């Protein structure tokens, strides 16, 4: 019986070309292999593309970090500049306040009554008056050179009358 089955099979396969089963199997294996190769190539391309995107992203992040650091440095510079300007203004305000206080003291000194002064006190008063007048001349000369204009008054010691001489301070 066994033989009969083999002969039946051979009879059935007589019309078929020999080696087709092997060819089909070989083609199937080759197809699977090429399919696997294609999948591997596709995976490699995907990995390369992903790597490129990752590198580009890293470059963009580094660039943005640089920009942020530059902005921070610029902000610190601007802050330091503003702080220096503020300190400069504070110094000028303190200087102006000191000058104002000095002017008040000078004005009080210039307005002192000289009637009750003895000779030594009068001499001291005149020396102080000369110092004040000199300081005002220097200040006016310095301020006019800084501003680039001429002094506003015509000179003298601010128009204070000297009751001992009857002179109006040279004005």
Automatic annotation (TrEMBL):
Residues of the region (Disordered) are 1-48, 143-171
Q: List where Acidic residues composition bias occurs.
A: 1-12
What start-end ranges are recorded for coiled-coil regions in this protein?
61-90
Q: Which UniProt keywords apply?
A: Coiled coil
Superkingdom of this protein's organism: Eukaryota
- Spell out the Polar residues composition-biased ranges: 162-171
Amino acid composition bias (Basic and acidic residues), ranges on this chain: 13-48
The name this protein carries in UniProt is Uncharacterized protein
């Amino acid at each position: 019986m066994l033989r009969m089955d083999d002969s039946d099979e051979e009879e059935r396969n007589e019309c078929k070309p020999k080696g087709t089963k092997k060819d089909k199997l070989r083609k199937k294996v080759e197809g699977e292999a090429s399919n696997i190769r294609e999948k591997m190539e596709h995976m490699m391309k995907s990995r390369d593309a992903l790597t490129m995107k990752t590198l580009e992203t890293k470059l963009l992040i580094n660039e943005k970090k640089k920009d942020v650091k530059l902005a921070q440095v610029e902000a610190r510079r601007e802050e330091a500049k503003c702080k220096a300007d503020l300190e400069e203004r504070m110094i000028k305000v303190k200087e102006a306040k000191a000058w104002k206080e000095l002017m008040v003291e000078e004005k009080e000194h210039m307005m002192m009554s000289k009637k009750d002064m003895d000779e030594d006190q009068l001499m001291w008063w005149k020396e102080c008056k000369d110092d004040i007048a000199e300081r005002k001349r220097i200040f006016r000369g310095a301020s006019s050179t800084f501003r680039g204009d001429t002094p506003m008054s015509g000179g003298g010691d601010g128009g204070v009358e000297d009751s001992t001489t009857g002179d109006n301070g040279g004005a």
